[in-house]
Structure to design on (1105 residues):
């Protein structure tokens, strides 16, 4: 079942002489339960692609369908609501709120929706993240890996259709990196979570079902593993 | 509470100091609004109280109403209270006022004594129908001497005209024919002799009890309502809702058409035809009546009174200034708070928070701050207005001898106004920040430094800065430029405070100069002027100069000599462009100052007073003002008016103003002097000063001015008042007036300076928040500067320079605008007096000092915090 379809996605920054084409008519689709890695050099356009899929930025041209819905036909607010229900975002710099503890940071997307989650589900999630004994800690009391696990928890808690991870291991040592990658793989396998991950580390990309290489804003190569 | 709101609370707690300072800002703003509204409400209530004290609490009086009718009134829902008085009749007394030859005996119930304008001066209220109160003007106006404790018998009867019509207090004394004061057309009939004891002295009752033209002095005894019979004067006070229809109600009571009646009392202009119809209607009225319209207007529609309207406009303008200033300052606090949280908002957006949620979040923050600031502000505002009113009463007690005093009232309207305006202020302040926060895109959280966009060209600093202040100087200069908009608000707040302070200080000093000038121009403390009837009264006046406390005095009588021929000085006629008529009459005043003073005056000029018979000292130096229409300026020049020389003789006529009797006057000029005798320093017209004897030989007058110099003007005033008891005179106590004016200006000063201080404090909260937050935001930058080896000394120098740059910028704008404004005030207020403009130098100095002290203190405060930080920690934390 196709969960994501990207059609002719184009993003141009700047005007006239200063024009930069970040994405140039990119098209591909992702099936439910797939783990896709997007690789490419710095400035190849992979982050732009991820932001567009996540609906945090709007394209110059082209369309993105998530679960059959054209997300850019939504206005900003509707898009925001769609995002918090259907898309989980994981960033390189975690982007946790420093004055909220682990549990609160994880619960944030649900809270925005005035929803809550039963204690058991939360406990299971924290256990899976290996954060069950850190639930009341503030971000600056955690290691980088723990912070990133928190942000993965935040992405998973809403049971999103799609998880987008932007260089989730870019800021971590190799041990923590392995942990994070394992965690993502686990959620993909056990929960059937669809994941799109950006990385420039070929080793990490290997764990994906499929690797898409972006060069100069175009898809250069697609490899299924 | 949702997580989002909890987040806000956490953020507020985290920035405790800024939160508190913002709350203080809101509190001050609300307090100021509350205080202004409360003082206005108290002032209005004080006017109502004053009116009720003067004329009683009743809204309308029906005269001579049958008691049966009163019953229907009592049961009416619109009526709050009714007070009855009974007319017991008139009695002749030996009054000197021929239009007021009676006393009018009235029976007051217990309630009437309490609620109508019965103001005891001495003694007590009557307790039964053999005791009476007498008014003070029975003695002062009628010259009938009765005192508390006296027993008196009146032959009480009805006032009837020769035709036999009964008259009352609404009818003036009736005279036969057109020539008033000759033969009375009325008398008192059916007299009964009654004896009373005087138990109290009261002030003259208000006009709704005794009209100005009434023919009898009101004498009041006590009656019981149950014993009343026949007719009564009915004083009606309406209920709160009833008073709104007071005029309609009254018209119905009077049995006349209410439409025109209501319109005319509402102050509408009627056509001639309507007026005719109205007077027809009123002629048909069942009773005589009298409104306390002023009270009705004050209670129903205070803005109908022009003074109140003016005040209301002033209040609105002041409140508008407060709201605008507050919005300006508090806005900045929100702005800072939002800028600081840009990344947080971006992150919230990226996990799916809607714009509306972010906006609501900012307003939630505003609501929280308001929930603390507004109630505190209201309490503080009422407290401040309470204190202000007490202080005002102390200061104005002297000025309003009429018994007007401010009374504090707690006004729900003021609370409501403060709450509403407070909410408006806060939401206006938060509005822009809310929009700004909602505009944050999710990408802003990913890009690390989205809030600082620097263009290198804008940041180039003049080389001189680097040469003068070194690298630190350059960094601080660039910083001010980078955070231009943030510092602009700080600079503007300082500018506003500085401008307001300088201009208002200038205003105050001009006002006090005015008082000083007034007192400087007179060399006496008290003056008495009087028209005397006979030599006995004149002697009484003269005797006042030998009272204790009198140190010097002049007894001045003047007359005008009319003479033929042109004696104007050429310089004078040229200056005022006068073309004198050679044969026309000209005038010069002649004055005597009392023998003692004249002798002193002669001695000061080296003349022998004994040889001054028919000789005069000419004093015609004066400052002549000339208004030039083309330049709109008043010029002045000091010169002589006449060309008389020593040994010249002035020959002419004086005229007695009363009898028109003309007397030949001839004096030889013995000296020309610039100096005038004591007491006449501020008389600017030309004078011939002569001895009393010479004056008596050439003029007649019944008017005298006496000037006293004393070191205890209040005591002397008392003594003069005792001495001149029962005479008509005019006393002017300069010291007291000076004191009153000083008090009045002090009061204005308290209000103005209070206003400046609070407005400035609101500004200070803003400055504090801007500077401390900026310091906080620049922590990493400071940490970096230190990590590359900037020493403590260089660091402090850099911060001091930043204060200097900011303060200088604020003062560069603030001082010139302040001076300009103070000149404008000078132009409108005192330019006419011809005094030169004085630069408000002291105020400027204070402003400069205050600005630098303030900025340095705040800088030092936030530096103290930053120095404690760990350099590495700060750099590391940046990425969380």
């Amino acid at each position: 079942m196709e969960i994501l379809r990207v059609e002719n996605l184009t993003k141009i920054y700047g005007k006239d002489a200063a024009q930069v084409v970040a994405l140039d008519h990119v098209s591909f689709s992702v099936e439910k339960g797939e783990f896709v890695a997007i690789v490419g050099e710095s400035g190849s356009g992979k982050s732009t692609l991820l932001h567009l899929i996540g609906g945090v930025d709007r394209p110059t041209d082209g369309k993105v369908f998530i679960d059959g819905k054209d997300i850019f036909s939504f206005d900003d607010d509707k898009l925001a609501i769609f995002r918090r229900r259907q898309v989980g975002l994981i960033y390189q710099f975690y982007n946790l709120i420093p004055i909220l503890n682990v549990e609160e940071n994880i619960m944030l997307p649900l809270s925005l929706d005035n929803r809550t989650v039963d204690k058991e589900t939360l406990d299971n999630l924290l256990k899976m993240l290996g954060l069950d004994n850190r639930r009341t800690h503030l971000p600056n009391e955690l290691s980088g890996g723990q912070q990133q696990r928190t942000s993965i928890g935040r992405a998973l808690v809403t049971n999103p259709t799609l998880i987008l991870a932007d260089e989730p291991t870019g800021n971590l040592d190799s041990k923590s990196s392995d942990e994070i990658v394992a965690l993502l793989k686990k959620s993909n396998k056990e929960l059937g979570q669809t994941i799109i991950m950006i990385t420039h580390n070929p080793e990490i990309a290997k764990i994906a079902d499929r690797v898409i290489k972006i060069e100069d804003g175009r898809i250069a190569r697609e490899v299924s593993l | 509470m949702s997580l989002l709101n909890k987040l806000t609370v956490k953020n507020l707690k985290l920035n405790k100091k800024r939160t508190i300072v913002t709350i203080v800002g809101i509190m001050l703003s609300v307090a100021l609004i509350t205080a202004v509204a409360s003082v206005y409400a108290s002032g209005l209530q004080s006017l109502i109280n004053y009116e009720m004290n003067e004329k009683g609490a009743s809204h309308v009086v029906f005269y001579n109403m049958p008691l049966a009718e009163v019953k229907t009134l009592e049961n009416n829902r619109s009526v709050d209270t009714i007070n009855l008085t009974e007319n017991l009749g008139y009695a002749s007394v030996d009054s000197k006022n021929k239009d007021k030859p009676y006393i009018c005996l009235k029976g007051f119930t217990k309630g009437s004594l309490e609620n109508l304008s019965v103001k005891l001066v001495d003694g007590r209220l009557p307790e039964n129908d053999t005791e009476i109160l007498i008014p003070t003007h029975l003695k002062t106006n009628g010259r009938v001497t009765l005192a508390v404790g006296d027993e008196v018998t009146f032959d009480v009867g009805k006032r009837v005209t020769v035709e036999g019509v009964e008259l009352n207090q609404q009818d003036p004394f009736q005279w036969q024919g057109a020539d008033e004061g000759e033969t009375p057309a009325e008398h008192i009939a059916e007299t009964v002799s009654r004896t009373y004891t005087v138990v109290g002295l009261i002030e003259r009752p208000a006009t709704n009890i005794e009209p100005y033209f009434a023919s009898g002095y009101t004498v009041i005894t006590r009656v019981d309502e149950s014993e009343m019979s026949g007719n009564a004067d009915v004083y009606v006070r309406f209920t709160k809702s009833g008073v709104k229809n007071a005029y309609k109600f009254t018209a119905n009571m009077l049995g006349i058409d209410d439409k025109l009646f209501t319109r005319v009392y509402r102050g509408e202009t009627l056509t001639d035809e309507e007026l005719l119809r109205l007077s027809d209607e009123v002629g048909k009225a069942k009773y005589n009546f009298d409104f306390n319209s002023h009270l009705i207007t004050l209670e129903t529609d205070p803005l109908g009174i022009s003074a109140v309207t003016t005040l209301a406009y002033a209040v609105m303008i002041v409140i508008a200034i407060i709201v605008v200033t507050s919005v300006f300052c508090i806005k900045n606090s929100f702005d800072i708070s939002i800028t600081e949280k840009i990344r947080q908002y971006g992150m919230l957006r990226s996990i799916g928070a809607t714009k509306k949620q972010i906006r609501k979040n900012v307003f939630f923050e505003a609501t929280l701050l308001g929930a603390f600031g507004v109630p505190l502000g209201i309490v503080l505002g009422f407290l401040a207005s309470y204190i202000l009113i007490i202080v005002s009463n102390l200061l104005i007690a002297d000025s309003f001898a009429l018994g007007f005093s401010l009374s504090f009232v707690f006004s729900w309207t003021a609370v409501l106004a403060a709450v509403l305006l407070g909410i408006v202020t806060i939401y206006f302040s938060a509005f822009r920040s809310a929009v700004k926060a909602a505009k944050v895109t999710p990408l802003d959280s990913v890009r690390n430094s989205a809030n600082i966009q620097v263009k290198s060209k804008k940041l180039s600093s003049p080389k001189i800065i680097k040469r003068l202040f070194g690298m630190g100087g350059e960094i601080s200069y660039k910083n001010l430029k980078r955070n231009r908009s943030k510092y602009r608000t700080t600079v503007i707040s300082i500018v506003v405070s500085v401008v307001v302070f300088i201009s208002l200080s200038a205003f105050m000093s001009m006002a006090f100069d005015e008082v000083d000038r007034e007192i400087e121009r007179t060399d006496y403390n008290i003056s008495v002027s009087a028209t005397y009837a006979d030599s006995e009264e004149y002697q009484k006046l003269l005797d006042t100069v030998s009272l204790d406390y009198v140190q010097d005095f002049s007894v001045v009588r003047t007359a005008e000599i009319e003479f033929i021929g042109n004696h104007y000085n050429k310089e004078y006629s040229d200056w005022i462009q006068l073309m004198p008529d050679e044969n026309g009459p000209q005038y010069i005043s002649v004055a005597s100052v009392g023998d003692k003073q004249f002798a002193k005056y002669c001695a000061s000029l080296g003349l022998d007073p004994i040889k001054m018979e028919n000789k005069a000292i000419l004093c015609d130096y004066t400052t002549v003002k000339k208004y030039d229409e083309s330049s709109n300026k008043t010029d002045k020049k000091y010169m002589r008016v006449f060309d008389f020389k020593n040994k010249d003789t002035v020959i002419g006529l004086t005229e007695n103003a009363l009898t028109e009797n003309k007397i030949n006057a001839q004096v030889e000029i013995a000296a020309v002097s610039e100096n005038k005798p004591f007491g006449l320093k501020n008389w600017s017209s030309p004078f011939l000063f002569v001895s009393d004897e010479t004056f008596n030989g050439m003029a007649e007058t019944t008017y005298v001015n006496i000037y006293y110099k004393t070191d205890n003007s209040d005591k002397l005033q008392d003594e003069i008042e005792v001495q001149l008891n029962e005479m008509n005179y005019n006393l002017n106590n300069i010291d007291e007036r000076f004191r009153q004016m000083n008090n009045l200006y002090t009061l204005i000063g308290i209000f103005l300076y209070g206003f400046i201080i609070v407005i400035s404090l609101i500004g200070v909260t803003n400055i504090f928040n801007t500077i401390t937050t900026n310091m906080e935001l620049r922590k990493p930058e400071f940490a970096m500067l230190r990590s590359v080896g900037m020493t403590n000394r260089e660091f402090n120098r850099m911060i001091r320079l930043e204060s200097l740059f900011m303060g200088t910028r604020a003062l560069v704008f603030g001082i010139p605008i302040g001076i300009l404004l103070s000149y404008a005030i000078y132009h409108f207020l005192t330019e006419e007096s011809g005094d030169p403009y004085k630069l408000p130098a002291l105020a400027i100095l204070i402003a400069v000092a205050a600005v630098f002290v303030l900025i340095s203190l705040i800088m030092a405060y936030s530096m103290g915090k930053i120095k404690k930080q760990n350099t590495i920690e700060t750099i590391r934390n940046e990425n969380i």
